[in-house]
Design a protein that fits this description.
Blueprint lengths: L7 E7 L5 E6 L7 E6 L2 E7 L8 H4 L4 H15 L7 E3 L5 E3 L2 E3 L11 E3 H6 L3 H9 L7 H13 L3
Antiparallel strand pairs: 1-2, 3-4, 5-8, 6-7
Amino acid sequence: MKEHDRVWVSIRSLEPEGKILLDLEKYPEVEGGGIVMQEGRIKAVAGGVENRFFNRAVYAKRTMGSSFKPFVFTAALQLGWNTADPLSNVRDVFVFQNQAYFPRPDHISPHENVSMSWAGVESENVAAVWLTYHLCDKLNESQSKMLRRIWDWLPR
């Protein structure tokens, strides 16, 4: 190694006198990307740790389950959901446009209900699909009527 080389380290301990002990790592513990949204608009995008000039948030191939979650969670927050609201995380059949859909999680979760925050952090596909199916559940009657007018106005 030479001066200014990039190296990955993890913190082993923080000593009382302010000394920090580090472990040299071959690869960082976290690789990923993030998209920050505000008021329905993308405000910031960043991602990756290896492969210089490769932004995982934009260019990494990922399954639909990973791609649609930020948009579903943003829509849910705008439609009155709270990040602590419970979401069902039990495999079930969902019907969209007369087609049955049975989501398959990429991991087994021990929790039958999770918060929206948990679903985002742990990438719970089933909870995200359940939320998509129930997005409008928290709307009051006037909001539902307005949404219906918008839906009827959309071209098909």
